[in-house]
From TrEMBL:
<dbReference type="Pfam" id="PF08281">
    <property type="entry name" value="Sigma70_r4_2"/>
</dbReference>
<keyword id="KW-0804">Transcription</keyword>
<dbReference type="InterPro" id="IPR036388">
    <property type="entry name" value="WH-like_DNA-bd_sf"/>
</dbReference>
<keyword id="KW-0731">Sigma factor</keyword>
<protein>
    <submittedName>
        <fullName>RNA polymerase sigma-70 factor (ECF subfamily)</fullName>
    </submittedName>
</protein>
<dbReference type="InterPro" id="IPR007627">
    <property type="entry name" value="RNA_pol_sigma70_r2"/>
</dbReference>
<feature type="domain" description="RNA polymerase sigma factor 70 region 4 type 2">
    <location>
        <begin position="105"/>
        <end position="156"/>
    </location>
</feature>
<dbReference type="InterPro" id="IPR013249">
    <property type="entry name" value="RNA_pol_sigma70_r4_t2"/>
</dbReference>
<comment type="similarity">
    <text>Belongs to the sigma-70 factor family. ECF subfamily.</text>
</comment>
<feature type="domain" description="RNA polymerase sigma-70 region 2">
    <location>
        <begin position="7"/>
        <end position="69"/>
    </location>
</feature>
<dbReference type="InterPro" id="IPR013325">
    <property type="entry name" value="RNA_pol_sigma_r2"/>
</dbReference>
<dbReference type="Pfam" id="PF04542">
    <property type="entry name" value="Sigma70_r2"/>
</dbReference>
<dbReference type="InterPro" id="IPR052704">
    <property type="entry name" value="ECF_Sigma-70_Domain"/>
</dbReference>
<dbReference type="InterPro" id="IPR014284">
    <property type="entry name" value="RNA_pol_sigma-70_dom"/>
</dbReference>
<dbReference type="InterPro" id="IPR032710">
    <property type="entry name" value="NTF2-like_dom_sf"/>
</dbReference>
<keyword id="KW-0805">Transcription regulation</keyword>
<dbReference type="InterPro" id="IPR014303">
    <property type="entry name" value="RNA_pol_sigma-70_ECF"/>
</dbReference>
Length: 307
């Protein structure tokens, strides 16, 4: 097998490592490409291409994350990972096995870790690399990596919900939610929302923003009940789609351009959180991006005759 063939075979793994460390599709793709360039020009023949490439992509991702942390401190409003529409793994069993570590909730928990803790957790806990391989990748001793892994596990376990819904339950509830959204079924929506549900948007200051978020079932229902008919009136389409291994949707304008994405956190038979990404910079990989401000203005105009 040639180096190019080995690399292509391992590309899904490399992207998956980089995305979980960085929370960015574009930066993960860049890290994978840089890994290929280094592999292509490396004179040494590694004993294990998998270990070598995983180590290279991890080091690149750690460096990128360290500089990204500075930018995120200056980010306007809440920061969410870039939505991932499709798991790079072609094997459905492998995709299902890794889905929970792709969720928005899990990636936001990873944000609480230091870059080294995050990398060690991803390599060890998500992908099952041995501590020797992990140590080589992050440039620390095995003992230090065991400590980093233990600390990361504690942080992750403390933030995870105690009872998680199974995939089928999440999908069925999401289907009912988006049906109710399209039909303007206020009571149907209210029945699906947890009392303390929150609707939070990541606009990065580049799209309309709901302040720090909308909190509580009644407030969220009120927002959705206002938004849904106006969006439909201007030709908007809600396209249910898996997002980061969770139920979600892509909102498109009448021309098919992406306005935003929604991701639902489902737990105990109810929607606990709705996370929407509006920042156009984070939607370019989804498709041509709409002008969210123009969409809002059009929706506002469409509302006036009914007032």
């Amino acid at each position: 097998m040639t180096r190019a063939e080995e690399f292509e075979e391992l590309r899904p793994l490399l992207f998956s490592i980089a995305y979980r460390i960085l929370g960015s599709v574009s930066e993960a793709e860049d890290a994978v490409q840089e890994t290929w360039l280094r592999y292509q020009t490396s004179p040494a023949e590694p004993v294990s291409a998998k270990s070598f490439l995983a180590a290279v992509v991890t080091r690149i991702a750690i460096d990128v994350l360290r500089s990204a942390r500075v930018r995120r401190e200056e980010y306007v409003g809440p920061w969410f990972p870039e939505p991932l529409l499709a798991d790079p793994y072609q094997d459905p069993e492998r995709s299902a096995e890794l889905a929970d570590s792709l969720s928005m909730a899990a990636l936001l928990l990873l944000e609480r870790l230091s870059p080294l803790e995050r990398a060690v957790f991803v390599l060890r806990e998500v992908f099952g690399f041995g501590f020797g391989e992990v140590a080589s990748a992050v440039g620390r001793s095995e003992a230090a990596c065991r400590q980093l892994a233990a600390r990361a596990r504690r942080h992750m376990d403390a933030g995870r919900p105690r009872f998680e819904a199974d995939r089928r339950e999440r999908e069925e509830l999401a289907e009912r939610f988006f049906d109710a959204f399209r039909e303007g079924d206020v009571e149907g929506l209210r029945a699906l929302l947890a009392a303390d549900v929150h609707l939070v948007a990541d606009s990065g200051g580049k799209a309309p923003q709901w302040g720090t978020g909308v909190f509580g079932a009644e407030n969220v229902v009120r927002v959705i009940a206002t938004l849904a008919p106006l969006f439909a009136r201007i030709g908007g389409v809600v396209e249910p789609h898996q997002m980061n291994g969770q139920p979600g949707a892509i909102f498109r304008d009448r021309d098919g351009k992406v306005v935003n994405t929604w991701t639902l956190d489902v737990l105990d038979g109810q929607v606990q959180a709705i996370r929407t990404v509006l920042n156009p910079d984070k939607l370019e990989h989804v498709g041509p991006v709409a002008d969210a401000w123009a969409t809002l203005r059009e929706a506002t105009r469409a509302r006036r005759p009914a007032d």
